[in-house]
Design brief:
Helices cover 27% and strands 0% of the residues. It has one domain. The protein has four helices and no strands. It starts with 5 loop residues before the first helix and ends with a helix. The chain is mostly helical and 104 residues long. The chain is globular, with a radius of gyration of 13 Å.
Length: 104
């Protein structure tokens, strides 16, 4: 089963792992500590846990408070990509930062 990362799903060009990158890389593509989380590259399948993303759905940006964790915690629950990851991962789905820390 193909497990897309957020930059694949949204066709984002802010990932250093994508086919082509333009501009400042999104923090999601730089988070090596999340490597493998939900089967993704860097935080590519855990973007809702990362602050300061360049999400194409919420239009979050580095200096935008919407990119903060409190906003994302509620907003990302309505995201099609997060729903896909949750469905693909089943019981192994990691949703919160705390679950990532406990995994180690």
């Amino acid at each position: 089963m193909h497990k897309p990362n957020c930059w694949d799903f949204f066709q984002c060009m802010r990932s250093r792992h994508g086919a082509r990158m333009e501009g400042t890389p999104c923090p999601v593509s730089l988070m090596s500590s999340y490597q493998g989380c939900n089967g993704g590259v860097a935080a590519g399948r855990a973007c809702w846990m990362i602050e300061g993303t360049f999400c194409t759905v919420s239009k979050c940006g580095v200096d935008d408070e919407r990119g903060g964790y409190e906003f994302k915690k509620d907003h990302c629950d309505h995201c099609e990509f997060k729903a896909l990851v949750k469905e693909q991962e089943g019981k192994g789905f990691h949703e919160e930062r705390r679950s990532m820390l406990l995994k180690r």
